[in-house]
Amino acid sequence: MSIWLAQHWAAMRDACRRLATAPLNSLLSLLVIGIALTLPTAGWLLIDNLRALTGDSPGVQQISVFLSLDAGKREIAEIENRLQAGKIGRWRFVAREEALKRLQAAEGMADIVASLPRNPLPDAFVVTPSESQPAELERLAKTFAGWPRVAHVQLDSAWVKRFDALLRLGRLVVMLLGVLFAAALVTITFNTIRLQILAQAAEIEVARLIGATDAYIQRPLHYFGMLQGALGGLCATLLVAVGFHLLTPLVAELTQLYGTNFTLRGLGAGHVAFLAAIGAALGWLGAWISALMHLRRFA
Predict the structure, then answer these.
(1) Are residues 206 and 254 in the same domain?
(2) What pLDDT was estimated at residue 56?
């Protein structure tokens, strides 16, 4: 075991030495890999923030349950008990007097409301479900409509469906970009390892003559690809962090104009580790393919 660990440690040191030998080329390669991982990562984060923003905004994905005008306190209490027992999500009760005051406070509505002989607005419940899928929202709306003393249930299901379809389309585009740039990362590592093999052709031939195995020769190349990919993933997290840092005050200012307090959610520690692992895995794959193909000429 100690010999095996020593061999892997030596391969890792050799990979670090190769990166340090040509710092400019290594930096450019890391930058290219970082950009390749930055675009799909930033797209995924933007979609995730968009869903969070719409979920936190008032009036989005809410169900309004209007009661009949003759609904009394007993019927209101019964609906409250149903909402509490169902654990549907957040909800609030809007009394008809409160709704009339809000309508009267609206611009140009004071004289109209004052001319009404009585309050025409019903009591209502505004429900914000914990589930945001269109099918679940429509199911809840049908359930509310069947409750006693419920006159009307309002849900903009068409808007919710369109928004959900746009999010699914965005996720698909991000996935396609991720696959495309992952292939580009593998290609970059493939060519880098090919150049490493061509530059060290004489050294590899000598190692073959003295009995070096394929695993011994390929191990430093694999570590080089893994290390380059992992560092490229960390470079991508840095680029995404800088971009979101620049966008955060602008987005906060824009959302405040619409009466919403929202802050962009950036990458966490788990995301950083995941990006580094993805970069390392893709780098290893490119190095493995390149070493497998180009070392055959030394067999």
Answers:
(1) yes
(2) 46
Whether 134 and 177 map to the same domain: the answer is no
Structural domain ending residue among the three candidates 155, 171, 186: 155
Residue 92 pLDDT more than 80? yes
Distance CA 91, CA 80 (A): 9
Query: Nearest to residue 141, comparing CAs of 151, 130, 154?
Result: 154
pLDDT at 270: 87
Q: Environment class of residue 23 by beta-carbon count within 10 Å: exposed (0-12), middle (13-18) or buried (19+)? A: exposed
Identify the DSSP state of 238.
H
- As given in the structure block, the two tokens for residue 165 are 């379809």
pLDDT surpassing 60 at residue 134: yes
Query: Which pLDDT belongs to residue 234?
Result: 92
pTM (two decimals): 0.64
Task: Give the position of tokens 């430093």.
Answer: 220
Does 95 map to a domain? yes
Identify the domain containing residue 82 by its residue range.
Answer: 63-155
Q: d(Cα 40, Cα 174) in Å, to the nearest integer? A: 5
Q: What is the per-residue DSSP string for 157-171?
A: HHHHHHHHHHHHHHH
- Shared-domain flag, residues 258 and 199: yes
